Structure formats: structure tokens, C-alpha cells
Amino acid sequence: MKHLTTLLVILFAGFYSHGQNQQVKLNKMKGEILVLVNKYRVSQHLKPLKDNAIIAKEAEIHSKNMANGSVAFSHDGFDNRVDRIRNKVKDAYEFAENVAYGPKTAQKVVDNWLASPGHKKNIEGDFNLSGIGVAQNNSGRIYFTQIFAKK
Description:
Helix content: 55-70%
Strand order of the largest sheet: 1-3-4-2
Oligomer: single chain
Shape: globular
Strand content: 15-25%
């Protein structure tokens, strides 16, 4: 029984460590996306976006909901996300959102957004705040949300 308990503890620790490592990787990816988007914006003579924790929380929730299948891959609920942000980020008045799934690197996500006219328009928009959410489903597919705001 002692050996079985030890084995279960080791298996749980390995699973927990893997989950922690994956979350660290996803969090790092959020920062990389913002750096890449800002690098592009600066190259276009636009001001960089500032990360906002309230906006990022809404983006994260949306990415998690898409990843777990509680909402479809879409912009569904965008108006609700905006309302919640407006209630906490006073004077924010203009919003946009990019979503994506699949790419395994921040560079690929940003490249894909820049290759899409609608997403590129959001990246080049007259915004100064942003929040990014990244979540992975059980199959390993990664979902991305970037919300843009103007204050």
C-alpha cells in the first residue's frame, strides 16, 4: 500500500508540474504577443498598447470558454465583455477584438492576424489599451483572444 501511495503522489506531482509548466508557457505567450503587436505598431508609427489587467481578464475568460467548449470559437458575447470592461475601466469608449486558435507560437498568431484585413485593422486601430488571453484545451489546441480599447 505504501508503494501505491508513493506512486500516486509521484504521478500527481508530475501531472501538476506539467500543468504548471504549460500555464507558464501560455502566460509567456501572452507577453510575446503583446511585444510583437507593439513592435508592428511602432513600425507603422503607431503608439504601443499598454497591457490592462481588467481587459486581460475578460480576454482570458473568453479564451478559456472557447477552449473548454462552453462557447463556440467566435466573438459571441463581445458586447457583454465590453460592458464588463466599461464598468471597471472608466472612460474607455472604443473596443475591438481578435480571436484565433491553433498556432503554437506567438509569432504565428500575430502573423496570421496581420495577414487578415479585419484583424490587421484592429491591430492598427486607434487604441491604447489591450488585454490578451490564451488557453489550451484537452487536445492541445490553443485559443487566443486580444481585446483592444481606447481610453
